[in-house]
Amino acid sequence: MRFNKIFASMLFVGASFSGNGWAESFQPFEVTDIQVEGLQRVALGAALLSLPVKVGDTVDEVKLQQAIKSLYGSTNFENISVSHEDGILYVTVKERPTISIISFEGNKDIKDEQLQESLDGSGVKAGESLDRTMLSGIEKGLQDFYYGVGKYGAKVEAQIINLPRNRVELKFKFTEGLAAEIRQINVVGNTVFSDSELISMLELKDYVAWWDLFGERRYQKQKLQADLETIKTYYHNQGYIRFEVTSTQVAMTPDRKGLYITINVNEGEKYKVKEVNLIGDLMGREELMTSILPIKAGNMYNGADVTFTEEMYSKYLGRFGYAYPEVKTYPEIDDETKEVVLNINVKPGKRVYVRSINFTGNTVTKDEVMRRELRQMEGAWLNSAQIEQSKLRLNRLGYFETVDAETIQVPGSDDLVDVAVTVKEQPSGSFNAGVGYGTESGVSLQFGVEQNNFLGTGNQAGFSVNTNKYSKSANLSYTDP
Question: How far is the C-alpha of 351 from the C-alpha of 328, rounded, in Å?
């Protein structure tokens, strides 16, 4: 008869010993054989590989505890028990079931594809073993999503349906309910701008006119965050550099059908620009870069001007091959004089060169036809202006509906990129036909076909036929522009 077993749950933390005072009187023993029972999907070799005990080892309580923890760590088992008799170590396991099917029911706000993508990120997918301990966290995460869009009555339930051969169907049942409507939005602490002026900028609405068929008062957490940023940007653009949203409260009515939103702000005061300094590596172009600086001393501080200046210098550096410059503004604020010194730090980084230019999407148009329109060359430094000019020239051909260009850094190199040009082709040909009648010439017929990108060569080819009572003519043309 085997010695009493050591049992561990799914959330096993430390081995426990029970029965006949084994925990008190357990004697170490030498393992003469290891037998694993209960395996179905997991191979015996894989199970033994996860077991830190080998034949010939002398095991004690600590080693058995470590063995159980190691087996649980393999994520293949949901129940494990260990016993021994005459030197033979018996390991009895219950494998985690395999997920055969994942299905969704009742979800309208979230598409099945989005749900599956979220589950894939958590390691829950068909063909994988099921970790039951993760289901409550997944349920809560999905429920939090519904709360974020104002559906506070939503419920998510994960159901496990057993199938033959230790397989399960994992079904998520959704009860979405109705979205809570915003009853009122309040702004507290504002004196410079009125409530109505600030609330009119927000995407969230607490009032929708009866004739606005597409308006809604539905709450969404993401929209609230965007609206707070909108208010902050508006104040910064008016010179209130110290403005901040101190807190927000979203209060729900007892019936969970209405919401009251309160936004608490601290406006501060207006600040003027005392001085603007260009610092960092200006590549010997300090005079030119200073001359095009749009922010002047004495101007009211404007956050939009600061952002525009940073983007302008980044594009300027991009013309000389500095594809990944860092241009950041560090303000020094004097609260006594209500002035701010703007220090614009320029870090061009390494000059980047183009290794190759690749085209995708051109199923008809040949690469050489597109390549001759490029102003950015392979082997030259990356020039953002030439990239934009190349896109413009490709668009003007009339062969493409869309033209996009993306720079992809070459792995293992910080100064080489590939340029990926992606196009979507459109028809570039035309045909015409006509019928006429004259008292002298009688019935006349006309037909013509013209192709501006003949066989993808970029050449123009055309054929036309005209016929009437007195004459017949045909015209064939081929033009290499």
Answer: 19
Query: Looking at residue 117, which CATH number applies to its domain?
Result: 3.10.20.310
Q: How many domains does the chain have?
A: 6
**For position 13, what pLDDT does the model report?**
36
CB 273 within 8 A of CB 301: yes
* 10/88 same-domain check: yes
Give the sign of the dihedral formed by CA 358, CA 364, CA 368, CA 370: negative
pLDDT bracket for residue 6 (50, 70, 90): very low
User: What's the rounded Cα separation, in Å, for the pair 436 and 444?
Assistant: 5
Tokens for 236?
A: 């910064």
* pLDDT number for residue 26: 67
Residue 140 three-state SS: helix
Q: Which domain holds residue 441?
A: 429-479
Judge if pTM exceeds 0.70: no
62 and 115 assigned to the same domain? no
Same domain for 414 and 435, yes or no, is no
Q: Is residue 69 part of a domain?
A: yes
Count the neighbouring beta carbons within 10 Å of the beta carbon of residue 227: 22
Structure tokens, 398? 């009339």
25 φ, ψ (degrees, to nearest 5)? -110, 10
If asked whether residues 12 and 83 sit together in one domain, one would say: yes
Please list, residue by residue across 384-419, b when 16 or more beta carbons sit within 10 angstroms of its beta carbon and e when fewer do.
Answer: bebbeebbeebeebebbeebebebeeeeeeebbbeb
**Phi, psi angle pair for 118, to nearest 5°:** -65, -40
Residues 10 and 83 in one domain: yes
Name the residue among 294, 304, 289 with its Cα closest to residue 348: 289
Helix (H, G, I), strand (E, B) or coil at 480: coil
What percent of the chain has a predicted confidence (pLDDT) above 90?
40
